[in-house]
Design a protein that fits this description.
- With 381 residues, this protein is an alpha/beta fold.
- The protein has one domain: Rossmann fold (3-Layer(aba) Sandwich).
- Helices cover 31% and strands 15% of the residues.
- The strands form 2 sheets. Strands 5-4-1-6-7-9-8-10-11 form a 9-stranded mixed sheet, sandwiched between helices. It has a two-stranded antiparallel ribbon with strand order 2-3.
- The radius of gyration is 19 Å and the shape is globular.
- The structure holds S-adenosylmethionine.
- The site of S-adenosylmethionine has 22 residues, from strand 4 and helix 7.
- S-adenosylmethionine binds next to strand 4 and helix 7.
């Protein structure tokens, strides 16, 4: 079943959390010269036109990246994320939103490797087109690859199945992002099984999993299941932007679960998440939770025993509820069918130049339905 199109959700609050955290994970890897692999098992189209038919249908970005767009008081880590998007939109009007592959392309360095998987025929074509255009543009600028082999490989295929062949990566450094649609409840199990196998092959990798918090049992139990995986440490951050609606529609919360996170991540999130909650709060139910720990021992009967997180930091609004910080309409994801994983509705990046020495302009392919003029995209780091 391949009905999910990320273009409907581009730039929503879940993307904000996922992409801001992903940038920080990549920046941590950037601190050492040794090359790394960025493996995106569920890549999507790479770039989204927010004025395209899909993204504008529910305009989920209005309650995601929207409230951050013009803020001038962003904490540095959020500014880095917003600046990357600002650089794609040099006119100042927010028209394009990056997917995780584009973000990785901008933040990773010339000698790092991007391995991108996407199963949907239309989105895998858009993804390949986007990266072909970026390469063509680089060639036009006279920029030639400085290392052997392809920096970016786009594969139309099953990311769950393809991951194992890439592990361990040659340099023994990698960030793996696993971000499936979860429309099929099997995705929860597939994520866990894929990670269990990946950790055997490459125990030292950093693995980041995005997941929705929904009524369905698989979703509610998901984080606790991931805590059983045999990694070094884990970190789980959840962003809730509003009180769940009685009809169960709409995505109110999502999480990033990270296996083997950098030690810098938790203190950074403690600093930044209160700001993010306030900025994206739709009502007094907005909050975040942040917990970390080591793998939960399994009892003989296969059930998890009591877990002992290393630290737990409650979201600000859990203890001191926020009043609605903004008068944001609540209906963005309201038309999502029940039971789907995501509501299906109807060097720091710098503005003005690439930090990785890669070219500055390319034309993105988007959801294929946006026939409006395409704007150049700045490449940064
Ligand atoms: N990671 C992207 C981002 O942050 O911009 C968004 C990815 S979207 C949530 C999930 C994508 O996974 C969809 O484009 C869908 O077509 C694709 N997909 C679904 N099942 C897949 C599979 N088994 N392997 C690879 N891609 C898959």
């Amino acid at each position: 079943m391949l009905s999910y199109r990320h273009a409907f959700h581009a730039g929503n609050h879940a993307d904000v959390l996922k992409h801001f955290v992903t940038i920080q994970l990549l920046q941590y890897l950037n601190q050492k010269d040794t090359a790394y692999s960025y493996i995106d098992t569920h890549s999507g189209a790479g770039v989204y036109a927010l004025d395209g038919t899909f993204a504008s249908k529910n305009a989920e970005y209005d309650t995601g990246i929207g409230p951050l767009w013009e803020r001038t008081d962003l904490p540095p880590e959020l500014k880095e994320y917003v600046d990357l998007i600002r650089a794609m939109n040099p006119s100042g009007k927010m028209r394009y939103y990056p997917g995780s592959p584009y973000i990785a392309d901008q933040v990773a360095r010339e000698h790092d490797r991007l391995r991108l998987f996407e199963l949907h025929p239309a989105d895998s074509k858009l993804l390949a087109d986007n990266f072909r255009k970026l390469e063509e543009h680089a060639a036009e600028q006279g920029i030639r690859p400085t290392v052997r082999g392809k920096r970016v490989l786009v594969t139309r295929g099953d990311g769950f199945q393809s991951l194992k062949a890439l592990l361990p990566p040659p340099s023994r450094r990698a960030l793996v992002l696993i971000d499936p649609p979860y429309e099929d409840k099997q995705d929860y199990k597939k994520v866990k099984d894929t990670l269990a196998e990946a950790l055997v092959r490459f125990p030292g990798g950093t693995y980041a999993v995005w997941y929705p918090l929904l009524q369905r049992m698989e979703s509610r139990q998901f984080a606790d299941k991931l805590k059983q995986l045999q990694c070094g440490e884990w970190l789980n951050v959840v962003l809730t932007t509003h009180t769940p609606q009685p009809d169960g529609f709409g995505l109110h919360s999502s999480g990033m679960f990270i296996l083997n996170p950098p030690y810098t991540l938790e203190p950074m999130l403690k600093q930044v998440m209160p700001y993010l909650v306030k900025a994206l709060a739709k009502d007094s139910g907005a909050r975040f939770t942040l917990e970390s720990g080591t793998p939960t021992p399994l009892r003989g009967n296969g059930m998890a025993s009591t877990r002992t997180p290393r630290a737990a930091a409650p979201g600000t609004s859990r203890n001191a509820p926020l009043s609605a910080a903004r008068n944001t309409p609540l209906g963005a994801a309201r038309n999502a069918p029940a039971g789907t994983g995501r509501p299906t509705g109807p060097g720091a990046p710098r503005a003005g130049g690439p930090a990785n020495g890669r070219p500055g302009v390319a034309r993105p392919a988007t959801d294929g339905r946006n026939t409006g003029p395409r704007r150049p995209v700045n490449r940064q780091k």
